[in-house]
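Below is how a single chain appears once it has passed through the pipeline. First comes the sequence as given, then the structure the pipeline wrote out for it. We keep one example in the README because the format questions we get most often are answered faster by looking than by reading.
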Amino acid sequence: MNKKNLVFAGIGLASSCISVNALGPDAKILESTLAGSWYEANPALLRKQIGEWMGKAALPPDGSPFGPIALIQPHAGYMYSGPVAAFGAKAVAGRKYDRVVILGPTHRVYLKNTVCLPQADGMRTPLGTLEIDQAFAGELRKFSFVQSDDRVHQGEHSVQIQLPFLQAALAEGFKIVPIVVGQLDAEYAKKVARALAANLTPSTLVVASSDFTHFGRNFDYVPFQDKIPERLRQLDLGAFELIRNKNCDKFTKYIADTGATICGEAPIRVLLEMLPDNAEVRLLKYATSAEATGDYSHSVSYLSACVDGKWEPAAKLNENDFLSNAEKKTLLAIARESIDYVFQNRKTVPSDHFDARITEHMKKKMGCFVTLKIDDELRGCIGEIQPFRELYRAVMARAVDSAFRDIRFRPLTPEELRSVEVEISALTPAKPVNSYKDIVIGKHGMTLTKDGRSAVFLPQVAPEQGWNLEETLTHLARKAGLSPDAWKSPDASFTVFEAIVFKESDFSSAR
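Resulting structure:
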């Protein structure tokens, strides 16, 4: 066997000699570290065991017009959680997916605001080899909060444990995206979710791997000492009710308030942040290890849930994008209402007018441009590059400036406001670059400064016009009142910035 295939030495992996590596002899394959301990190493026995559990799983009624797009599955050894996991497997049995994204929590490695992919080409269990979707993984690796490390996956069971059930249940031909999820705060849970959502297709299944409450002194969690079975169920299903309602913020608060030891809470939060409006979450099965052992002094809860729905197209993520869709819609509404306020009251909107609608993210100090267009033709655009005030206040001011103070256009009329589309570009801080060659079209906004003159283009300008870098800089020089080739001069200086760009047509209800 190729030495690259020995990265993860399986525990009693009797089937490795019959597993076919469809990726070629030089592919790097991570062998299961769980076979022979967490589940059967013999492929025939493993498949038979999973099949028997799935055969006994009686699924609740399914009233959704859509099929399953996600599962929440336990990740204990199969002798404990296998009968529960079988419910989720049965819900997707025989279905065809192109890829399965598996989100498992880290149990042994500290990964603050980080998620981890493997470097390998595939992962192998006794039931065969699964290819890692490198195109999908490559899109994720563009972000600084994504790292690649086989060692993290070597020591983590939460992702590996899901593979045999998927292999036994799903139609062949799917690839996997195995992700170990670290300790994520709210901002990074949203970032990870958006990075994933931007690459999902209708034929993607997402699996959030999580056990629920770990109860007992060994887990340092004994919140009650009487009526343990009833109170465990109440605690776990209280958390699930918030998941069912797709309320990530309340689920997070519930964990904090109760101390509930749900080890996969970060993968669940990422899943909740990803779910489309059409998604419906249903409980398939709930059980505890104590029901089997009779020992309620030490119990782990297991839950299987299915999400039915349809993944909706999502915009590609700018890594600096921390605003939710709801916050973007609010900012667009603030821009439009600030302009309308001038028409209605003949004065600018009071500084505290929108305070009740402002979130912490909208208070972040950022540069901002507000662009107005009618039938895709520019009707006004004014902004500020330097972040000297809160984003929402910049939006309020620059919306009014774009409507009434852009010297290239006459002031906007009330009739035109009804036809205008509002676009907002929230800017990252500008930073100097050594050369114009460091500017990346489509990613960077840019400023050119020479002889006391300067001009700025937002990141979306060049792609919208179909310009390459030289064409962009030529137009930028002309905008600054310089000669067309002034950007080539040794004393020309440049800064770059990035932007979170969103407009009303991105959201059907924004206007």
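The chain has 16 helices and 20 strands.

See the next section for the split statistics.
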